[in-house]
Structure formats: structure tokens, C-alpha cells
Specification:
Elements: H1 3-21, H2 25-28, H3 34-49, H4 56-86, H5 91-100, H6 105-131, H7 144-173, H8 175-191, H9 203-229, H10 236-246, H11 256-266, E1 270-276, E2 279-286, H12 296-322
Antiparallel strand pairs: 1-2
Helix pairs in contact: 1-5, 1-7, 1-12, 3-8, 4-5, 4-8, 6-7, 6-12, 7-8, 7-9, 7-11, 7-12, 8-9, 9-10, 9-11, 9-12, 10-11
């Protein structure tokens, strides 16, 4: 098989394996998940090099340096693992299975569906407990509509940066691209915050995460629009209108695209004002004017749109692999 077809073929195996099997929990009971290992390295780097005694300029320089080193190390490690796997019998299969550990289709579905299930079985309190596992906002400040919106926002955002971006960089660079992307994305989630400790040190990680997520965020919006074509009661035209009007208004340069597309397709309004650590953040609504008092049934409708978008993405990978 030519090098040009190698990454798409392996990624097709990865997408199918993740969709069908999800996370192999039996394996991760015996060894750490790759993202857990990445997080442990980043936490060590933060403790070791982010010194409060240093000035802001020095901390920013250190942050740039460690970000570059970790990304280059991920590229090198990914290349070494990919080469080793391809040298084995059925190497393409093993590479695809390794890639599947860096995709989270079924895992994301399960976590969001758990919120709907908790609301259906235990009401608001159950929903708050479940949604607190996947979002950072204050759960006690959420009513049932707020719990539902939070779950749907997490679904849309993580579709982009947990699935589409990983597959995109896998198509471009293979396993090295996927591993480097996960390092960048995990660094952003751990140290890319505008807090006194991480404002300077995490600056490079946050900016780099914005850059590497830019193509996937736009692509994820397109996938959700296409998914709306084949979902009853969804509107691709409304999704396009919401993206054009509201995506750029989001505080993130990327998150607004999938959030606006999902909200517009289903007639929901998501994002908007919410509370983090007791502080109210007045963000604009995605699909402003849509229905915002959402329910567990609306979460499940969003999950139906999500799976169709994953299917469209998988069909695209298949088409590339067969080209």
C-alpha cells in the first residue's frame, strides 16, 4: 500500500474500532490510558519549570520552550511507535488500533448520554452530578435547562477537538500527528488558563491549541450541517445561518463553530451566561433566539445528530482511503 493511503487506511480501522468497541477498559485497568500518561508528564513539567519565583517574561519563555519540546517529543515518539507497529505482521491493523486510543467517539457519547439518563432517573440533582463530570461550570447554579445545555455544549465542542481534530491530524501526519495534537490539547486543558499561575507559562500551549484546532472546528461545523440533512426534525439551513451569525461571537476562536452548528440544526440556544467558580460569565448565545429551556430528550436528540456526524466523518475517511 502506498504511503499516501497508509494513514487513511489505518484511520479507517481506528474509527471503526472506536465506534464499535469504545474504550478497552479491561486494558486500562492494567495500564494507563495514553492521555493519562500525557497528563502526568505535563503535570510534572508544570511543577518543575513553572516557578512562581520567576518573572512573567521568564515564565512565558519557559512555557514556549517546554511546549516546543513536548510537541517535538510527541512527534518523534509517534513516528517510532508507528514504524515499530508497521514492521509487525498485520502492522496496519495494529497501527489502526493504536490510533483508536486517541479517538473518543463512543466515550463521548456515553458520558453525555449519562447526563440524560441521570436526569431521567434522578431528576435535577442526578443531572447536576453527571454533568459535573464533563464540564467545569458550577453545577449547583444550573437548573434542568442549564444541565441540558451544558451537556450539549460539551458534546459539540468535544466532537470537534476530541474526534475531528484528532482524525484530521492523523490524516495529515499519521500517528505522530495524532499524538502531538493530543499533547497540545491536553496542555491547553491543564495549563492554558488565564490564571496567575498559568497566564504566562501556558500562553504558548493555549495559542498553539487555537491554531491546531482551527481546521477541525470549521470541518466539524460542516459535518454537523451534513448530518442535519439526514436527521428528521433537524435543519441544515438553520445550522448554516447560526454558524454565519454566531460562531465568531464565541469567546473561543474555534468552539463557536460546532456549538452554533449543533444548536442551529436542532433549534436550540446554547452557551450564553453561566457560572464558573462563583463568577458569572456573560457569553453570547449560540443560535440566539432558539429554545433554551432544554431537557434530557433534547440531549438525546443532540446525540442522534452527533452519531450521524460521526458517520459522515467515517464515510469521508473511507472515501479518502479508497481514492
Amino acid at each position: 500500500m502506498s504511503d499516501e493511503l497508509l494513514h487513511p487506511a489505518a484511520l479507517l480501522i481506528a474509527v471503526l474500532a472506536d465506534a464499535a468497541l469504545g474504550e478497552p477498559f479491561w486494558l486500562y485497568r492494567r495500564m494507563a490510558h495514553p492521555i493519562v500518561l500525557i497528563g502526568a508528564v505535563i503535570a510534572w513539567v508544570d511543577r518543575r519549570f513553572n516557578r512562581e519565583s520567576d518573572g512573567e517574561a521568564r515564565r512565558k519563555q519557559r512555557g514556549i520552550a517546554v511546549t516546543a519540546v513536548l510537541v517535538l517529543a510527541a512527534l518523534g515518539l509517534g513516528w517510532a511507535i508507528q514504524a515499530a507497529l508497521l514492521a509487525l505482521p498485520l502492522g496496519l491493523l495494529w497501527l489502526g488500533l493504536a490510533m483508536s486510543t486517541l479517538i473518543a467517539q463512543q466515550s463521548l457519547y456515553v458520558h453525555v448520554a449519562d447526563v440524560a439518563k441521570a436526569m431521567e432517573l434522578s431528576g435535577l440533582e442526578g443531572g447536576r452530578i453527571a454533568v459535573a463530570r464533563i464540564v467545569g461550570r458550577d453545577p449547583e447554579a444550573l437548573d434542568s435547562g442549564g444541565v441540558s445545555r451544558a451537556a450539549i455544549e460539551s458534546l459539540a465542542e468535544n466532537f470537534s477537538d476530541g474526534i475531528v481534530a484528532s482524525i484530521f491530524w492523523g490524516l495529515v501526519l499519521g500517528l505522530p500527528g495524532m499524538l502531538a495534537y493530543k499533547v497540545i490539547n491536553t496542555m491547553d486543558s491543564m495549563i492554558g488558563h488565564k490564571t496567575p499561575r498559568h497566564q504566562a507559562f501556558g500562553w504558548a500551549a493555549a495559542r498553539l491549541d487555537d491554531v491546531v484546532n482551527l481546521p477541525a472546528s470549521r470541518l466539524s461545523a460542516v459535518l454537523l450541517v451534513l448530518a442535519a440533512v439526514v436527521l428528521r426534525c433537524a435543519s441544515p439551513r438553520a445550522a448554516i445561518r447560526a454558524v454565519r451569525r454566531d460562531a465568531a461571537r464565541h469567546k473561543s476562536p474555534n468552539s463557536g463553530w460546532p456549538e452554533a452548528a449543533m444548536a442551529g440544526a436542532l433549534g436550540f440556544a446554547i452557551a450564553g451566561p453561566r457560572s464558573y467558580h462563583g463568577r458569572l460569565v456573560s457569553d453570547p448565545w449560540m443560535n440566539d433566539g432558539g429554545r433554551w429551556q432544554l431537557t434530557a430528550a433534547d440531549i438525546r436528540q443532540s446525540l442522534r445528530l452527533y452519531w450521524r456526524a460521526c458517520a459522515v466523518l467515517g464515510a469521508g475517511v473511507l472515501a479518502i482511503a479508497l481514492t
